[in-house]
Automatic annotation (TrEMBL):
Keyword Methyltransferase tagged: yes
GO molecular function, a single term: methyltransferase activity
Keyword Methyltransferase: yes
Taxonomic classification: Bacteria, Bacillati, Actinomycetota, Candidatus Geothermincolia, Candidatus Geothermincolales
UniProt-listed GO biological process terms: methylation
InterPro entries assigned to the protein according to its UniProt record, in alphabetical order: Methyltranfer_dom (IPR025714), SAM-binding_MTase (IPR053173), SAM-dependent_MTases_sf (IPR029063)
Keyword terms of this UniProt record: Methyltransferase, Transferase
Ranges annotated as spanning the membrane: none
Pfam family of the protein (one): Methyltransf_31
Domain Methyltransferase: from-to ranges: 35-187
Provenance organism: Candidatus Solincola sediminis
Protein name in the entry: Methyltransferase type 11
Length: 267
């Protein structure tokens, strides 16, 4: 699984995940809060970019954060230790083989994980097993089909499509945000609520231009270059032009929009 993961585990990807989480913290986490003593499973914690926000927002909840990548878990544990967060425990685990008893958790939190999995129904079923009856699940995913920008550019669209296709070739779905509602319903969760969270960035919002348009989204597309070329999806010249055009949307006259989907449901 680690080898198939489309974004890889480089230092620049770790930086991108932290930029993304910090930049979007207000938008994505304003209503994520867990009560004192509740047990929360964060699956796919990566390098701890969301973990630090979860832990800070719910300092008295007990958070168990897990990822299939041993190296990412090590980095996450080091970070949370540096930040003196003592309400998080880390483990290396695969979502399809969870080393927990049935109904161990009051809540489950996953962010940018389902989009990478070939069998999302199986993943949700595995999570259901360890969730208490009446427990909640929160799922945050993006949808690369939701982005539009100025200046528009067919090359930029083509580069984004290369990322979508690269992810699909590894079994993932970069357009999963729009499917969270049916996925959770079909998995047997109830009271499924979806909150679309739109990012809008122009020169009046320099933090979003820097943190989202450049350092999160365009950096992510840029990271798909090698795979896109290896799959024969484009030429290097066209891909680079597309990435350059995406950076143009971060110029003073540029605009970039993207929608995340945050799902909340009960078991
Ligand atoms: C895009 S990263 C998101 C990390 C973190 N949630 C964040 O938002 O910063 C996706 C993470 O899912 C992990 N992952 C992929 N497949 C997994 C699996 N089968 N079980 C557990 N984690 C998995 C990857 O190792 C990676 O750390």
């Amino acid at each position: 699984m680690e080898q198939e993961y489309v974004h890889g585990y480089s230092e620049s990807e770790a930086r991108r995940l932290h930029d993304q989480a910090q930049t979007l913290s207000g938008l994505l986490h304003a209503d994520t809060y867990y009560k004192d003593g509740e047990r929360v499973l964060e699956m796919g914690c990566g390098v701890g970019a969301q973990t630090r926000i979860l832990a800070g927002n719910s300092p008295l909840a007990k958070i168990i954060s897990a990822d299939v990548s041993e190296d990412s878990v090590r980095q996450a544990a080091r970070l949370l230790n540096e930040l003196r967060c003592d309400n998080v425990e880390f483990i290396v685990a695969d979502i399809f083989h969870l080393p927990f008893d049935e109904q161990e958790f009051d809540h489950i939190f996953i962010c940018f994980l389902l989009e990478h999995l070939a069998d999302t129904a199986e993943a949700l079923s595995s999570l259901k097993r360890v969730l208490k009856k009446d427990g909640s699940i929160t799922v945050i995913e993006g949808d690369h089909g939701s982005c539009f920008f100025h200046p528009n550019s067919p090359d930029a669209r083509s580069a984004i499509n290369c990322l979508i296709q690269s992810q699909a070739s590894a079994g993932g779905d970069a357009l999963i945000g729009r499917r969270l509602y049916p996925l959770l319903k079909e998995a047997g969760f109830r009271e499924v609520t979806i909150s679309p969270k739109m990012v809008y960035a122009d020169a009046n919002r320099p933090d979003l231009v820097e943190g989202f348009t450049k350092n999160t989204f365009t950096a992510m597309v840029e990271g798909a270059r090698e795979k896109a070329l290896a799959l024969g999806l484009t030429t290097g010249k066209r891909f680079d032009k597309g990435v350059m055009d995406l950076y143009r949307t971060a110029q003073p006259e540029g605009v970039f929009c993207y929608t995340f989907f945050k799902a909340f449901a009960l078991l």
